[in-house]
Amino acid sequence: MDNSSYAALTRQTGLLREMQTVANNIANASTTGYRSEGVMFAEYVHSTGIGESLSMAVAHGRWTDRAQGPLNRTGGRFDFAVEGAGFFLVQTPRGNMLTRAGAFSRNQAGDLVTPEGHALLDAGGTPIFVPPDARDVELAADGTLSAGGRPLTRIGLFQPIDPADLQHRSGTLFATSSGTEPAVEAGRILQGFLEGSNVDPMTQVARMIEVQRSYELGQSFLEREDERIRNVLSTMGR
């Protein structure tokens, strides 16, 4: 296989990953708290040793769009939405993770949890407990949760210590190898609202068409190259 084929195959692999990413975005256009993703490409240059260099486009990783999603009023007592910067911190079997999905409920133990059962953590990193007899539960913009006018705790907003270190794990959960810290320029938390997905379906569909056309062009090139090589080998074998 010659260098042009290697470069084309690398490009096709990257385009396939991008198509999968765009398809996942479209599938989650209505998922609460979902963050749109994209694929980052990097140029890989390698010397061939014959006075020329080989340049290939490599799918280097993914990036996450942190743009604000639409805020939808639900009126739910434990539906919370972040307006501005910051993430909720939840406790999972794989460690604490960040999320913008704020559809919480109270479990049998009285802790606020996600639909998957992950406990919501307060500013000190402790699961938030709401007494079973709590009435008139209200949330202040700074995250202070109270019942009957008495403060219970303060919901924390967090961010990765390294702003670029946000690793999508599953659904609407994100991990960070650098650790988390309180969001310095935190937004406000709204009660009775949920933040929708920040995916723009029209933009994603247009991108899908563009990537698909690029992939088809690359596939046509590989097929022509394969035919050319077969013809050369057939001619040399005569």
Strand content: 25-35%
Main β-sheet, spatial strand arrangement: 6-5-9
Cα end-to-end separation:
21 Å
Order of helices and strands: HEEEEEEEEEEEEEEEEEEH
Number of strands: 18
> In which range does the helix fraction lie?
25-40%
* Computed structural class: alpha+beta
Major β-sheet profile? 3 strands, antiparallel
User: So how many helices?
Assistant: 2
Averaged pLDDT: 86
* Whole-number tally of structural domains: 2
Q: What is the rounded Rg? A: 24 Å
In short:
This protein has 2 helices and 18 strands. By secondary structure, it is α+β, with helices and mostly antiparallel strands.
Structural summary, described in words:
It is a single chain. This protein is α+β, with helices and mostly antiparallel strands and 238 residues long. It has 2 domains: 3-65 and 199-236, no CATH class; 71-195, no CATH class. The chain is built from 2 helices and 18 strands. It has a 3-stranded antiparallel sheet, with no helix packed on it. Strands 10-11-12 form a 3-stranded antiparallel sheet, with no helix packed on it. A hairpin with a 2-residue loop joins strand 11 and strand 12 (150-154). Helix 1 (3-27) runs antiparallel to helix 2 (201-236). The longest helix has 36 residues, at 201-236. It is elongated, with a radius of gyration of 24 Å.
Which structural traits does this protein have?
alpha+beta; 238 residues; elongated; 2 domains
